[in-house]
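Anyone up for a design puzzle?
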């Protein structure tokens, strides 16, 4: 695992992100909240109205799980079902690659919504060691939503999502992971004055109205 990270750090040819960061540093908003809080839903709406690219860590991990020949497929599948957080060496490389590809295709696309990351201390440390100086984290957009609402939304989504973790057993584990591992990360950013909180228990449109006022203010 460590090899992946150190391999990246020590590579001789400066990475695209490094070179781009010298010109226009990627601007990042971390999007956090419990499972089913509406992160993906709101990110889609943000992308329609603002010049952001949405990267969901969960979506990237599911794509890697499905990729033929992936050496991490099995591991990712079991972590997702158990509601555990995949080792960051895997996730950060998927995020870095996705950011690089986006910028490579269009250099004006340097604003990113990174959804579902960093979800624990390991995620945060991985980000800091790989991305430090290469991207600016503007703030954390926090979708605050009670556990029961989160569970109900995921169970409803589970009727058609085909997700292996939208069931009651996995959801109880996901909520525990959220409370034990993700909330402390949000609290760390809170202490830095970097959290923008939205009451996510309301309707999609009401939540989005608050999101818009935050993004309009932040510029
Ligand atoms: P997350 O990415 O945070 O897990 P999603 O955006 O996928 O959450 O939303 C989870 C489920 O809840 C989806 O089925 C979505 O359609 C629904 N949903 C999202 N936001 C709301 C909302 N504000 N009110 C009711 N249902 C919502
Ligand atoms: O954000 P989403 O609900 O799509 O995440 C689904 C699952 O993907 C998480 O419960 C977790 O198992 C995995 N994941 C992860 N690390 C992240 C984001 C998601 O391990 N940073
Ligand atoms: Mg999601």
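Challenge accepted. My sequence:
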């Amino acid at each position: 695992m460590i090899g992946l990270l150190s391999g990246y750090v020590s590579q001789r040819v400066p990475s695209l992100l490094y070179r781009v960061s010298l010109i226009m540093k990627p601007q990042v908003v971390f999007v956090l909240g419990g499972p089913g809080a509406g992160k993906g839903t709101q990110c889609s709406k943000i992308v329609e109205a603002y010049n952001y690219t949405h990267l969901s860590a969960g979506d990237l991990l599911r794509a890697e799980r499905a990729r033929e020949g992936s050496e991490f497929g099995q591991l990712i599948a079991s972590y997702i079902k158990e509601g555990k957080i995949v080792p960051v060496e895997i996730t950060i490389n998927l995020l870095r690659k996705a950011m690089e590809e986006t910028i490579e295709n269009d250099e004006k696309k340097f604003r990113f919504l990174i959804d579902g990351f960093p979800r624990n201390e390991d995620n945060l440390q991985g980000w800091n060691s790989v991305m430090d100086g290469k991207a600016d984290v503007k703030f954390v957009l926090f979708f605050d939503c009670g556990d029961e609402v989160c569970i109900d939304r995921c169970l409803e989504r589970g009727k058609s999502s085909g997700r292996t973790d939208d069931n009651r057993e996995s959801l109880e584990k996901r909520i525990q992971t959220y409370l034990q591992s993700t909330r402390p990360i949000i609290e760390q950013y809170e202490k830095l004055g970097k959290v923008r909180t939205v009451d996510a228990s309301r309707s999609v449109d009401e939540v989005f109205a608050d999101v818009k006022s935050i993004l309009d203010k932040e510029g």
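A detail worth pointing out: Residues 168-191 form the longest helix (24 residues).
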